Amino acid sequence: MKIINDQFYTKENVVELCKKSLLQFNNYDVFIEPSAGEGAFLNIFSNTLAYDIDPKQTKIMKQDFLELDLNFNNKKVLVFGNPPFGSRSTLAKKFIKKSISLGANAIAFVLPNIFKKAINQTYKLFPEEWKLINIIDLPKESFYVYDKSQYINYHVPCSFFVWIKNDRSNLPNLRKNKITLEIKEFIFVKRNSLEADLTINGNSGKVRFPHEITNPKAEHFIKINTNFDLIEIKEKLNNLIYQKYSSVNGGNYWINQDQIKEAWIEKYYK
Questions:
Q1: C-alpha distances in angstroms, 10 versus 1, 110, 268?
Q2: Looking at the DSSP assignment, which residues form a beta bridge with residue 158?
Q3: How is the chain split into domains, by residue range?
Q4: How much is the pTM?
Q5: Among 48, 147, 158, 173, who pairs with 31 as Cys (CB 3.0-4.6 Å)?
Q6: Which fold, 4-165?
C-alpha cells in the first residue's frame, strides 16, 4: 500500500500517552505543530500554530513547515507532533533541523525507534546544548491510514522523544554517546575489497558471497577473521534480526555497520 506524502495519522490513545510529557511546557510562549494532519495533537494547547501541506481542519494552516519563515523574538518555543519520516528518516531529520533553526527551546516528536541509537543523536542533528529527557515507547499499530477512504491500522516501530535546549534541571540526559563495538569474528572492509569474504545488503540484510552481488553500493563488505569458519559465520549473519532498526514507513530499513554489530552482539554475545 502506497502512502501519499507520508500521511499516516496518530491515534487518540497514543496522543494521550504523549500528553503528560507535553504539559510540562504549559508556560511556554509559542506552540507549533508542524505537520498537524487531522489535528490529533491540537487539543493539548489552545493557541497552537498548526501547519500541514494538506490540512484536514480549518484551524490548520496550509503551509510547508520546511519553508516557514518566522521570528519569535526570544520567546520560548515548543515544536511537537508526528512529523513525516521519509525514506531513511530524512524528512524527520529535516523537521528537527528546521525546528532548531526557528529557535525551538523544546522538540517533542513521534519518531522511528532508530532515533534511540547514538548515530541519530549526534551533535550534527541535535547540537551539544540539547538534552534528551524522555522516551515513551508507543504501542503496536499506533497509527492509521486511509486506503480508498477505508480506515486501516498501521504500524511503524516508534517512540515519543522529548528534547530540551539548555536544560538546567536535574533530569537525566538519555542521550547516547557513540560506542565503539568490537566484533572478534569479522571486520568490515572497503567496498569491492578483494579481501572480502561476504557481503550484507543494507536494505534486505541478505548475506551473499561477493561474486553473487549485482549492486556493490547496496552492500557492506565483510572479511572473516582467522580461526573462524566462513560458512558458520555466514549462517549466523543470516539469522540476525534487524526489524527493530526500521527507519521508514512500513518497517523498511537501511542497516548500517554499527547496527549489524549491535545485532550480532545482542544475539551471540549476551
A1: 18, 9, 36
A2: 112
A3: 4-165, 186-268
A4: 0.70
A5: 48
A6: Rossmann fold (3.40.50)
